[in-house]
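I have been asked to look over a protein record a colleague put together. This is what I was given:
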Amino acid sequence: MTLQPRPAIEIPQLIAPLFVAGVAILLLAALREPTRQRLSAIIVAGAGAAYLSGGLGPWEFAFCAVMTVVAFRGLTDYRWIGAGWLMHSAWDVLHHLYGNPIIPIAPLSSFGCAVCDVALAIWYFAGAPSPYPWARARKRGDPMDDYVKVLERIYDRFNARDIDGVLTVLTDDVAWANGMDGGYVYGREAVREYWTRQWTMVSPHVVPVGFHRIADGAIIAEVRQSVRDLEGKPLQGQTHGLKDKTVGHVFRLREGKVARFDIQESA
C-alpha cells in the first residue's frame, strides 16, 4: 500500500470531530430505550459500509461483514456498539494513511472521523447514558425502570443457570407458564422443578431486546429465544414446545416481585 499525501493536521481538525460527536450524543440521548440502542446499532452497521469504495479492495467488503455482526450483537449490549466504533476508528486511520478519505473532497475527513468515533465509543462503553439532568431525574422516579431491572436479573440468572438467583424475585404463589408442556406451574418450588427438568433436556438461552408496559400494568419483554441440545447443537425431532424464535414474555408484578408469567407468540 502507498502512503497517501495529506495536509497538515491542525487544532480545528481535532476540535471539530469532538463537537460532531457531542451533537450526536445529545441527539441520541434524547431517545428512549430501546429505540436509542436499536438506532445506535443501525448507525454503526451503516458506518461499516461507508468505505466500500475506499481504495482497500476486497478488505472493504470483509470489514463491512464484520461490522454487520458487531452491530447485531450491539442490539443487546452497548459494549459491542462501542467496539464497533473503535474498529471503525482504526479503519479510518488506515484510509487516512493508505486509502481514500471518507468524504472525497475533504482530505482530512477520515482523520476527523477517527477522532469522532473514539468519542462515541467511550460513550457507548459507558452504557450510552443520557447527559440531561432532567432525564436522569425522570429515570430515577420511574418505577418501570426498577421493574425492568428485576426482569433483566431474571434473564441474566436464567442464562447462568442460577435458579436461586431467579426465585428470589418471584412471589411465593407465582403462576409461571410452562413453555415445554403447556399450562402453568404454581409456586417457586414448582418453578425450580420445571427449570431443573428443562435444563436436563435442552440448553436454552434468552436475550431481552426491549420492554414496554401495556394498559393493564403488565410488562412485556420482547425476547430472542434460542434452544440447543446439551451439546450445543440445533434441536432435531423435539416433541416439546421450545424452539428458536422471538416471543413476548408477559410479566405481572406485585410488590416488586413477579406474580405471573405468560408467553405470547410475538411481543
